[in-house]
Amino acid sequence: MGRGKMPNGLDDVQLNVSLRSDFDANANPPSPTYISALHGGPPSPPNEKWLFINGIANEFFWFQRSCDKIRDTFNREVTGVYNRSDGILWDFIECCGERRDGEPNTLIERTQSSKAAQEALEQELRAALWPAAGKVPGKVVMIAHSQGCLVLRLALQTLATETPKGSPQRRIIKERLRIFTFGNPSIDWKVIDGTEQPLSKYVHTTEHFANETDFVAMLGVVMHRDDKGSGYDPNMVFYSKTGKAHLFGAHYSLGVNAYHGGEKSQLLKAVNGTEIA
Fold first, then answer.
1. CA–CA separation, 20 vs 43, rounded Å?
2. C-alpha dist (Å) from residue 91 to 119, 134, 150, 189, 215
3. 139-145 and 177-182 as β-strands: parallel, antiparallel, unpaired?
4. How many Cβ atoms sit within 10 Å of the Cβ of residue 235?
5. CA dist list (Å): 5 to 8, 12, 212, 239
6. Which parts of 99-236 are beta strand (E)?
7. Which SUPFAM superfamilies did the record assign (predicted)?
8. Cα diameter, the chain
9. pTM
């Protein structure tokens, strides 16, 4: 049995492999949202709405798997907002350049995929916090990873800008919204509301999770947690015990024992359908 004829050059090589594409047969991009629905088992708490936005270099398939990971760990239906990748290099450039609230965020605001993700996220947050009809969730859980944390910060800035101080909408944000970030590259966690204010002032709960050698998290929360005026509460930043890299699905645990002080986390206590505080 022989191996067949060896090719003499690229023209002789027969390729029979196709790569997965996020676009459909008509070259349309994927939907901006994905519902990771529960399949059997006990129902999730009826007064909660869970949202997720992904980070850098995510194909739609891996974005879906991240949503499913949250669903399976916490036994919640998860609505994911897809932050479509423009390639790991450009995504990383955005992470390096769009990390402070007081500076123009021109890269994200001019990048079509990031702008679309921000608009979709703002729409989902408004619908969850102030639904036009149907049951009003008492708790809105927002999980963001990586570059998605930057998009989330911009979305929260929009909500703060369009809701007057002392308004019922502001009160609802404070009472209902819970924010949890993973691998956050943002230098600070603040919002411009007349003056710079910590974002944690505007929501019910804020927690940040990071692997200390995650190169993206090192751009932000890992290196700047203790900076004066960063907006990060050091008591609400949880470093992993053994995690080293950046991918949400492969490298970030959702287990309470995986983080130093993890037993204090409100998110990590909510596994298996336990109602979040």
1. 33
2. 18, 37, 11, 20, 13
3. parallel
4. 9
5. 9, 10, 51, 55
6. 139-145, 177-182, 190-193, 195-198, 205-210
7. alpha/beta-Hydrolases
8. 81
9. 0.86
Beta carbons of 237 and 225 less than 8 angstroms apart: yes
Pick the CATH number of 30-273 from 3.30.70, 2.60.40, 3.40.50, 1.10.540: 3.40.50
pLDDT band at 31 (very low <50, low <70, confident <90, very high): confident
Beta bridge partners of 48: 139
Determine the Cα–Cα distance for residues 199 and 142; give it in Å rounded to an integer. 13
The amino acid that residue 45 corresponds to is P
> Torsion angle of alpha carbons 134, 40, 48, 246, nearest 10°?
-130
* Residue keyed to tokens 């609505």: 79
Q: Exposure of 41 by Cβ count < 10 A (0-12 exposed, 13-18 middle, 19+ buried)?
A: exposed
At which residue do the structure tokens 């910590």 appear? 198
pLDDT digits (tens, 9 = 90+) for 216-229: 999 999 999 999 98
Radius of gyration of the chain (CA): 20
Euclidean distance between CA atoms 218 and 248, whole angstroms: 15
